[in-house]
Each structure stands twice: as C-alpha cells, then as structure tokens.
Amino acid sequence: MDSVPRRKNSVEGGRGDGEQPVEVMTGMRHECGVFGCVAAAPWPTQIDVAHVICLGLVALQHRGQESAGIVTSEGGNSKNFHVKKGMGMINSVFNDEAMKTLKGNLGIGHTRYSTSAASEEVNCQPFVVHTAHGVLGVAHNGEIVNCDKLRNLVLSRGVGLSTRSDSELITQALCLTPPGAERDGEPDWPARIKNLMKLAPLSYSLVLMEKDRVFGVRDPYGNRPLCLGKIVPINNVYPGEIVEISKTGIKTITIVERPHDDPQAFCIFEYVYFARSDSIFEGQMVYSARLQCGRQLARETLVDADIVSSVPESGTAAAHGFSRESGIPFAEVLCKNRYVGRTFIQPSTRLRQLGVAKKFGALSENLKDKKVILIDDSIVRGNTIGPIIKLLRDAGAKEVHVRIASPPLQYPCYMGINIPTKDELIANHLDPIKLAKHTGADTLAYLSVEGLKLAVRENIDNKEHKSVGHCTACLTGQYPAALEW
C-alpha cells in the first residue's frame, strides 16, 4: 500500500488476491489497493466518507485496474452495508449516481488485480458476509501461502465457498469461533483475527469493517505494506499488528509475533517497482530509496558515457541517483505518450513491440552521437527493452549502455505478486552479456542483491534492528520460513 494524505481516521494497503490472469503481459502486475476510513465523532458525520475512500482508491489505482468496490455503513446497530462494486477503473465504477447510495460514517474500499481468482465481477471486493453477529466487510491485500490447508479447515466446519478467492476464504475463516472464546455468545473480533493470523501467517494486509469500527491488520512477517493516520503524519502498521479505528480514534489491539522469531520479510520490490514514489515505508520516502539504488548502481557498474537517462518514469529516480554519484549529466532521451495504454495487454510480441514505439518518442537532439547510459528499474520478460534501444540508435545514439536498478528477477512469488513463471523470466535464460547482445545494447548490468539491500536500508532508522528485514525471494529464491509450512 502507498502512503498518501487522508482525511479523518483511515487505513490503506496494497495487494494481489491470489487463478492466473488471462492477459499476456510483459512484466509484473501491480498489487491491489485497500483503503478504510472512519469519520471522527460526532456521528452522523458531515464528511462524505465514500468520497474520501474514493480519493484514497484513486491514489492507489496504479496497484490494480480490473475492478473496484466501496462498502459503507452508518455504524451503530445498522444491519445493512451500502455496497457498490464493478469491473473497470475507479472513475467508471463510481459515478455520481453510485456515490449517492454510499451513505455512512465509516467504510472500506478496494481496487483489484487478480492473482488466484479470475477477473470476474463475482470476485470484486470488498466481500460482505452476514454472520450470526452482524454484517462483516473484508478487503484483502496479499496471497495466503497455505490457502489449501485453510480452505480444508473452513470446509470441514460446514462453511461453503462461492469463489476461489483467498479473500473470500479469509472472510469465512473469520466467522469461525476461535477455541476457548466467546462464552457469552458475543463475538470477539480481535480474537478471531488473531486466530486467523496464527492459521495463516503470510501474506496479507487487511481492512475489516463491522458495526461501528474498522480493523487494520498486517501479517506477522510484514510482507505487504499497510499504514494509518489522520492527515499527517502517516504511520506504518507494524508486522503482526491489529489496529482498531473508531469514531473515538485509533488504538492497537495486539501484535501477533512471527513464528520461531523469524526475521521480518517486507517485500523489497515495493521499493523497486510497486509503490508510488511519494509513498513512505519504514520511515523513508520511496523516491529517496530509488535515488539511492541509482547511486549504488553507479558504484557497481559505472561505464564511460556522455549522458545518463531513464525509461520514464520507472527508472527516473534511479537515473538521477546514478548521475549524481557518477558526475555524468542527466538528460531526457525518451518522451512518453501518456495517452497510450499498457503494452502488456497486447496479445503478441510483435504488437507489444509496436506498442513500445507508439508509447515512446526519442529526443534526437539529446541523443545524436552520444554515449548513453539508460536506467530502468527492472527487466522481466525482456520484450520491451530491445525496441527502446533500437529507437535510441535510430535517433542517433552512438552507444547505449543499459543499467538495471535491481537484481535479475529469477524466481516466482507466492505472496501476492504476479511475477511470470520461472521459464518466462529472461534472466533465467540469458546472462547480462548475452542479454545485451539479444537486446542490442553495448553493455547491460544489474544492481547486486547486496547493493539493493544497502540502498533501501540507507535511510531507515535503526537499520540494524531485528524489526528491519526484507523479502528477496524473487531475486534469490530464499522465501520466508512460513512458506515451508
């Protein structure tokens, strides 16, 4: 999830919700976004809560564009939630007519991309279920790594499931009474959440709404991001933390410890790729971490050149860092057409390559007879970098040296990121020398894994504390211990 200013008390996060999507893509899919908001007392509020949530989802639109949903409630003894969900972008789902129906003092929202459930309206979130103790709304961020085990447990309790979504599975698991709890028949939602976290330690950030409060929950490994605040400052939800947001404010219910005292496993690719540059994680702005990646990349892979540039906008922060560290001036060489859709939706390699030419134009005056260092944040399948290099050479570039501000992607992710299969990842087939030849670059080099770790930890407070730790599974194949369960 990204950190953005919010009105009143709110909680938000970023995610994917577990069947493989049908589109042909050139890169990773973004994670989904979750957002929750509770108006401060007195109620009924004068704040348009649904509009606040909608603005929050707009800020998280980059994390998912398949579907969106908002659920609101007046709170108190309200027996009904107001729900609006649909396929498509946020501005197409939430028109003026839809927003008028979303009355309430609190609510949660979701913008989605699929990882485990098909891109269909039945899988749109938030999910709403009617329990013996009232209505419950759930929006989920991540992917349950032991979902088969949890699914069998839920089914054994006589609970039916209508989708293959991890998110519905979480919703139904929360309706199970935890052992030794709720003797007087009153629901203990914090105890139920804690029970779920012990049954499924990875990977999620959740926002849950019942009656007059919203819970924010982050998995014990801290793999998916989640933060909360009023307007400013934004605070991270700690790994394993359950926070309760009500009209009286925000409080921590409990913090569930990681199994076996395992290290934290915050997704390092949040810094590289997924998050907005103005997001704040672990006390630092993502932009500054990307700038530091560029500095480290220059230390490791410097080559003689006239200018440093980037593939906009993904590599721009790192390119500025590379330029500052190396002393080689930064200059734009590509002009991005902001009205062209993503190239990954094209059904063939040829059409994707044509899409690249349509998406970018070369600034020939900055390029002619120049040795160029071109920075990008990552290479996944490697389908688009070749056409970009050709574009630069056709515009007069003398040399093109590609530098990637992250290590080679070599392994799939099972925690909510839709990384292509191992066989589809170009780094598993071509080393940097062969990849440079394949793409038409003079040279190509990646940032090292240790270099990436150093870069993202540079500005973290207490960087050596045990609470600091990053998941590098997609780069190293070393997964958090919970995946061994």
Describe this structure in words.
The protein is an alpha+beta fold and 485 residues long. It folds into 2 domains: 33-218, Glutamine Phosphoribosylpyrophosphate, subunit 1, domain 1, CATH 3.60.20.10; 266-474, 3-Layer(aba) Sandwich (Rossmann fold), CATH 3.40.50.2020. The protein has helices at residues 49-59, 90-93, 96-100, 147-156, 166-174, 189-199, 269-274, 286-301, 316-326, 349-359, 364-367, 385-394, 432-439, 449-457, 473-476; strands at residues 9-15, 32-38, 67-73, 82-87, 106-112, 127-131, 134-142, 204-210, 213-218, 226-229, 234-236, 241-246, 249-255, 266-267, 280-281, 284-285, 307-310, 334-336, 360-362, 371-376, 399-404, 443-446, 470-471. Strand 8 (204-210) and strand 9 (213-218) form a beta hairpin. Residues 1-8, 15-26 and 341-347 have low confidence and may be disordered.
* Sheet with the most strands, sense and barrel status: 7 strands, antiparallel
- Estimate nothing, just give the exact number of structural domains: 2
Under CATH, the topology of the largest domain can be stated as: Rossmann fold
Number of helices: 15
For the largest sheet, list the strands in their spatial order: 4-3-5-2-1-10-11
Uncertain stretches? 1-8, 15-26, 341-347
Head-to-tail CA distance between termini = 26 Å
Number of strands: 23
CATH class of the largest domain: Alpha Beta
Structural class assignment: alpha+beta
C-alpha geometry: elongated
- What is the mean pLDDT? 86
The CATH architecture of the largest domain: 3-Layer(aba) Sandwich
Helix content: 25-40%
